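Hello Y.,

Per our agreement to keep a running log of every chain we model this quarter, I'm adding this entry. I've kept the format consistent with earlier entries: sequence first, then predicted structure.
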Amino acid sequence: MNLTKSKNVLNKPPGNLIKETSVTLSGEIFFLNKSSKTPLPPLVESYITRNKEIQVDVIVFIDSLFSTPDFNVYQLYCINNSGEPKLQFFIDYDLKETTANDFNAYQITFTVSKEGIPAGVKLKDIKTIEAFSWNIDPVTSRGTETTVQSN
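Predicted structure for the entry above:
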């Protein structure tokens, strides 16, 4: 059975596509014993800009043997366990699963979209975000949560 074609598996992340993103190769990382096919969790930082927007910087680690993938970012509004507004971002790419030791680090920078955020919720109300590496056919996706910082 092909899981990516199953009706019970999402083959596209939830949320709204953020159309304007910047992708930069920002370095390399090496592990002595990387044996799992599970993707590495992303590093994420976010802050409120002087223009009262939320900027997000996510670093995703990709097997250095692969060329730069096409990254798409999807934004999903949700409520955390405490009832507070939260945003989730899914960094989508399509690469073969790997057990690599050498990874290229790609920094993906974008500004939060107001699309999909309910009326009455202001960006300043969002205190946490979570970013996930979402490979189209991963064993699992990996996420990191962080606090939105004031600039």
